[in-house]
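User:
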Amino acid sequence: MSEATDPEINPEDGALAVLPPAASLPAAPVGGGALAVRAWFDEAIDVIEPAMDGSLAAERESALMFQRMAKAENTRVAYRAAVRAWCAWCEHRGLSPLPASGTDVATFLAAERRRGLTPNTIDLRRAAIRYLHRAAGCAVPTGDICVAETVAGIRRDAARKGELPEKKAAATASIIQQILAKIADDPRGLRDKAIILVGFAGALRRSELAAIRVEHLEQTERGLRLTIAQTKGSQAAAVTIPLPYGDTELCPVRALARWREVAGITSGPVFRRIWLPKHSKAELVSGGEPPPPPRIGIDAISPFAIASMVQARAASAGFDGPHFGGHSLKRGALTTGMERGVHPADLKRLGRTRVLTSSANTCSSAISSTATP
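Assistant: Predicted structure:
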């Protein structure tokens, strides 16, 4: 999946007002070559926590750090890729990417569209170029009328051709049951089952799943209470999501407990990377010592690895793997709730437009208690 189709990226995430450059960040290479601009932007968009020594320079560094942190990690990754594409295009045509003219930006976006990029990707390219110029303190060319009309024309062309944004398939309760039936109860299988069931019961995004830590979980009589420090719908405030006990094999609480017991996880990231042991075919044929067990790491699994895992597990169960991804769990939860007659207001709360624990708990219980067919 390219950054263009990632449902967790908001291409219209507004750029922030630019603070005075931090001491550790070199001046923007205004009028410089594409390679210099790309290298500067890669450094400028990273979040680096400065050492606090009480000086004004250190405090300015901190202000810049928080400015960068206003962009979600997925957005920063996508902006970095978009600026690299912009710089490569400028370099090939002998243009300076910073500052740019509105005409050049419009030409670049049109060229990207002719390469087959979607309107959402075009919006992301435009937003990244806008952010690049604001970060460098340059006049922003992306608001020029020629750019706006080019983007409008691209969207009209896509509508005329019947192009629709790609949506991942919804992993509903029945699909989840079929996927789980093909997963073994080895360490990797137990981890993947827990990821799928927790993501399904809580209607979680892949980034939210990857960020879960033991200290975010609270045991209750009805199951678990999960606190997520930051979500796409609430960047500045934590939300609480109930994970109730289920009556069937779709119970997220028991699946999570089995995984944590096998992995010996008592603190830190809940869903972690796993390395399978390497062994040769000769060792297998000789019938010697059994291979060592998988090694469970200490670092959290990445959101991208979760998406790939869901695709692979869906393909193993006979589904079209590429049509599934990390977002399939959230879509599947909401679709299952709708099929089971959950009130639309409760579904909206479960989707965390605004979370209210009591109503979300009712919806989660209805989803995780789906009867076995």
